[in-house]
# Entry
Amino acid sequence: KDLDFSKPEDYEDSTRTDYGDINGNGDESEGLLLELTTGSGFIPIGNSETNSFQGTFDGGNNRVDNLYINNEALTSVHLGLFGIIKNSKIANLTVSGNIINAEKSANMGIVASGYGKINITNCYNEIKMKSLNTTYSIGGIIGTITGGESGVIDNCQNKVDLNGGGYLGGIIGGLAPNVKLTITNCKNEGNITNEAPISSIGGIIGFQDSSSILELEDCQNFGKITGMQKVGGLIGSDRNSANVLTIINSHNKGDLSVTTTEKINIYVGGLISAVNGQATIKNSHNEGKEIIHTSGKDYVGGLIGILTGSLKVENSYNSGNINADVTSYQSSMESIYGGLVSQKKNSGNIILNKCYNSGDIDVIGNSYSDVYIGGLIGDFWGSTDVNANINAYIINSYNIGNINNQVSRSSRKSGIIGESYLVSSVWILNSYNGGNITGVNSGSGIILDNSNEKVKDIYFNNIYNYGQINSVTNCEIYRSLSITPEKVAKVNYNNVYYEKGLMATNRSDINFSSLDSEKISSNEFVDILNTNIVDNKTLKNGDNGEVLSLAQINESLKDYTFSKWQLGENGYPELIME
# Structure
């Protein structure tokens, strides 16, 4: 049976007064309906750690409507139909109503806080939640899970807007340390807004804390996400190097927006704003636009904002445009934008296999702004630790999004990697750029290298560029910011192509293969690219019969295969992404 707190007929006796002053307004003569729908309203089930709900609650696919909680007069830090649950299962329930929290610390959700082993299935949130507190967690389904156990949230949905709090997610606000959580078949349709300068918000989950394991599969966000610091289409942020994160068959369609005059670091990602641990993303994508107006340092990526751990991305893409306005900068700042990843830095490798970006990146700014833009990776920065082993492997991937930078200060932009610096090696194999690159300062079709003895090796094989490069200093394939022979990176290249008549590189020791404009857009060129693939795991690597296998490059690549080429509808060769 459905329950509506506002309907007298849903009470055995809505006028009874023997429960006393439930709503905290000092009047014990009010009937039960008034006590539960005015003042502080409903007291959550399990409103303290010593009085938590423990067991199974099956709602029988019924509804609880017009739940009302106002924390103005309460001291509780757990606001929801359920305050605290321990080792419990909640299932088959829809809840609507309002939860209002002033500036007090409180977790909020259908379930505010979960401890131990938690299972929430087939639950739907229609509770509007608003909080002025900037430190605790709000989730449409559950505020936070803690306790060092495992949890499952399956087939749940948030349908309404959420506002405020430090950590917000359409499904769960935050995941505490040492918890394993699996979220499957979940969806957010509500807009999520956070105006706190230190915050983390996402369409599904707000943040993942230290030494935790998070798995998302078949999850979707459709709501607009608006914040001031860490904003992700699915996940706000992964906050610790010991975390493990997996995203499979999930996508974001909601726009992401950050507007702030605070001079802080800004992290925005179509799927997740920041990855500090080990992350794997498969068969997932972002379609939402990312709109940025800031006075801080931007890290904005079509899939991931900043990456300081290790990352493997397969069969995934971004089609959302990135529009950034940094004209409000009043001091020297760097900002970094990438079609898939804004910046990779510190330890760990990055692997992109069968990935692409088709979203445009447009940046406007002033003379205070330094900007780095890449069609796939904005800045591959690496580490100042000379013993660090940091590598990028880009395989069967491409960019066709246009890059337009109108920042008047230093800028670096390229079709694949905007800048590489302080890294062990970069491998770009069986890939291409077709995006046009315009704006001031340096531009390159594939990669711009700021080596100065800091990039050890760059490897190109079976790649080409057909995008138009219209910058002050242009190179169709590769540009080095240092051309001193003893300082430049070693570039190992085979089967690298560009259009004849244009400058491929500013290094005189490198000779890429030029093709007539007619040939570079022909089936003949398709045949050349396919012939360079000896078998599905091996490329030609020279004119003397040498080959380059994926397993030879790195053991972690041994199960990958090279994609074949076909002539695209625009007349240029394209990869067959199966």
Q: What stands out?
A: The CA atoms of residues 412 and 469 lie 12 Å apart.
